[in-house]
What we know:
Blueprint: H1 2-11, H2 13-19, H3 24-45, H4 50-65, H5 72-84, H6 88-99, E1 106-107, H7 111-132, H8 138-158, H9 160-165, E2 168-169, H10 175-192, H11 201-222, H12 227-233, H13 240-257, H14 269-277
Parallel strand pairs: 1-2
Amino acid sequence: MDINQSLISKHAKSFSWAGFFLSKETFSKCSVLYDFCRTIDDIADEDGKLDAKKKKFLEFKSEFKNKNFSNNIIKNIHKLLEEEGISHKIVNDLFDGIESDLKNEVSFNNKKDLLIYSYQVAGTVGLMMAKILKVKNQQSLRCAVDLGVAMQLTNITRDVIEDKNRNRTYIKPDFNSIRETISLADTFYQSSFPAIKNIPIFSRFAILVARRIYKRIGYEILFKKNIETYNSAGKIYVSVLGKAVETFLSFFDLIKLFFINSSEQEKQNEHIMLHKEINLDEKI
């Protein structure tokens, strides 16, 4: 537990902040999920030759499929999947997304590819998180995918330079493309909001906080106003003061949820496009 907490504190400061509002048991399960996802992600992003990274990735994937419980990360994630009734098909989608990064060059040419990738590497995590939080409603589980996609789109807008250095071009490295992707992320943040009403109340606030803080990253990026300022800013984070403000505003979101229909959802073309490509019924 201590190791997982330190990993989240070191690598996922926004989630660590929001995790303060979860029960110890729920946070512990989220830590297991984070540790697993971080391990896979680190294999793809670490320095080294591509062939060596592919080999390491395939070995870890094989350990997962063959239930090599001598590896505590594998042991813990399998226990979590069984306890929470999480389909292995979701994890397979996550593996597919990470594996797609293990190329000499990654370049997306259209919005559909961007959304499918965002589902694979983050929408899957949102879906698994919803299962941990005891969400049962199928529409709400779909909206958990939307929140994961929104957060991944935010990550992509923040990491354009870092990704370019790894020969990954998810979006064009210009400020107009960054601005358009932040707007796209906002569509998914909006569509995810009503379904948070169906999260058990003792976990609901933590998700509202995480959603607000991550959305704030996009606004911090927009404050840079042009690609030159963006390039010189380094990795963009939300300050402690900014997190405190977004946490305070999350109380108003919590109240707002009591007055909306949890089945309401933005029916944007991008949202419809994603759900046409991903058969969620067999995974939720």
